[in-house]
C-alpha cells in the first residue's frame, strides 16, 4: 500500500503541474492573444495552484494527525455559515466542468469547531463526490440538525461503493476496487482525514451507498448548547 501511495501522490502532483507548465508556456510564447482565453488561462492556473496547495496541506496535515501532533483550535462557529462558504468556494472550482451543486441549508447552528479543519473535511467530501461522479453532475449538500447533533451530508449520483468495501474506506490508503478499475486517481488519505477530524470534534462520519447509483457521506457533530 505504501508504494501504491507514493505512486498515487506523484500522479496527483503531475496533473496540476502539467497544466501549469502547458499554460505558462503558452502565455510565455504569446500564444493566447484573445482576452477571453487569457482570463480562462489565469483561472486554470489559479485552480491548478490551489489543487497543489491543498494536496501539500493535506499530506502535511495527514502526517501530523498520524503522529497526534495536530492542535485543533476550537471555538463556537455557525456550521451553516461554514458549509455555505465551503460550498461556494467549491462551486467556483467545479462549475466549469458542468457540476451543479444544490445546497439545502438554512438557519444557524452553533457548534464547537476548528473552522479550518471542518472546512477541509467538507472539501474532501465534495471533492470525492465530484471525482467519483461518473456521468452525473449533480451534487447535493444538506445540513440538518436535531436536538443534540448536526448532520452535514454530501450526496452524489456516481459510481457508488461495493458493500463489502464500505467499512474499509476510512482506513488510510484504502481505495475501493471500482475506483481503481475506473482509473480514477487518488491517494486514499482523504476519508481517513475526514474521520480523524470528525472524531476530534466528538462526532463521526458514515456512508450510505448503492453501487452504480451514488453515495451519501454524512458527518455528525455535536451541537453547542448555550
Ligand atoms: P482518494 O484519494 O482515493 O479519493 P479517499 O480517502 O478520499 O481517497 O477515499 C477512499 C476511497 O473511497 C476512494 O479511493 C474511493 O474508492 C472511495 N470513495 C470515496 N468517496 C467516494 C464517493 N463519493 N463515491 C464512490 N467512492 C468513493
Explain this structure:
- It is a single chain.
- With 226 residues, the protein is of the alpha+beta class.
- It folds into 2 domains: 2-67, Helix Hairpins (Orthogonal Bundle); 75-222, Histidine kinase-like ATPase, C-terminal domain (Heat Shock Protein 90, 2-Layer Sandwich), CATH 3.30.565.10.
- The protein is 48% helix and 20% strand.
- It is built from 6 helices and 7 strands, in the order ααβαββαββααββ.
- The protein has helices at 2-28, 35-66, 79-94, 115-131, 177-181, 190-200; strands at 75-78, 100-104, 110-113, 138-145, 149-156, 204-210, 214-222.
- The strands form 2 sheets. It has a 5-stranded mixed beta sheet, with helices on one face. It has a two-stranded antiparallel sheet with strand order 1-3.
- β6 and β7 (214-222) form a beta hairpin.
- α1 (2-28) runs antiparallel to α2 (35-66).
- The structure holds adenosine-5'-diphosphate.
- Adenosine-5'-diphosphate is lined by residues 124, 128-129, 132, 156, 158-161, 169, 174-176, 179, 186-192, 215.
The string of secondary-structure elements, in order, is HHEHEEHEEHHEE
CATH class of the largest domain: Alpha Beta
Helix content: 40-55%
State the CATH topology of the largest domain. Answer: Heat Shock Protein 90
**Tally of individual helices:** 6
Low-confidence stretches: none
What is the makeup of the main sheet? 5 strands, mixed
Beta-strand residue fraction: 15-25%
Q: Please tell me the overall pLDDT.
A: 93
Spatial gap, N to C terminus = 45 Å
* Count of domains: 2
Q: What's the architecture of the largest domain in CATH terms?
A: 2-Layer Sandwich
Amino acid at each position: 500500500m505504501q508504494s501504491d501511495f507514493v505512486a498515487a501522490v506523484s500522479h496527483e502532483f503531475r496533473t496540476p503541474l502539467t497544466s501549469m507548465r502547458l499554460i505558462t508556456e503558452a502565455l510565455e510564447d504569446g500564444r493566447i492573444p484573445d482576452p477571453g482565453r487569457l482570463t480562462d488561462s489565469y483561472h486554470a492556473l489559479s485552480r491548478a495552484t490551489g489543487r497543489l496547495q491543498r494536496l501539500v496541506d493535506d499530506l502535511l496535515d495527514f502526517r501530523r494527525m498520524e503522529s497526534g501532533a495536530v492542535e485543533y483550535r476550537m471555538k463556537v462557529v455557525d456550521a451553516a455559515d461554514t458549509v455555505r462558504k465551503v460550498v461556494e468556494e467549491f462551486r467556483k472550482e467545479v462549475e466549469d466542468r458542468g457540476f451543479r451543486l444544490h445546497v439545502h441549508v438554512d438557519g444557524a447552528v452553533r457548534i464547537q469547531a476548528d473552522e479550518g479543519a471542518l472546512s477541509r473535511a467538507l472539501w474532501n467530501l465534495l471533492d470525492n463526490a465530484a471525482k467519483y461522479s461518473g456521468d452525473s453532475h449533480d451534487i447535493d449538500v444538506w445540513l440538518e440538525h436535531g436536538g443534540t447533533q448536526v448532520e452535514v451530508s454530501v450526496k452524489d449520483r456516481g459510481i457508488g461503493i461495493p458493500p463489502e468495501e464500505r467499512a474499509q474506506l476510512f482506513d488510510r490508503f484504502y481505495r475501493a476496487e471500482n475506483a481503481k478499475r475506473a482509473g480514477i486517481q487518488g491517494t486514499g488519505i482523504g476519508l481517513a482525514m475526514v474521520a480523524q477530524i470528525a472524531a476530534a470534534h466528538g462526532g463521526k462520519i458514515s456512508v450510505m451507498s448503492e453501487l452504480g447509483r451514488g453515495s451519501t457521506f454524512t458527518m455528525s457533530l455535536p451541537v453547542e448548547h448555550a
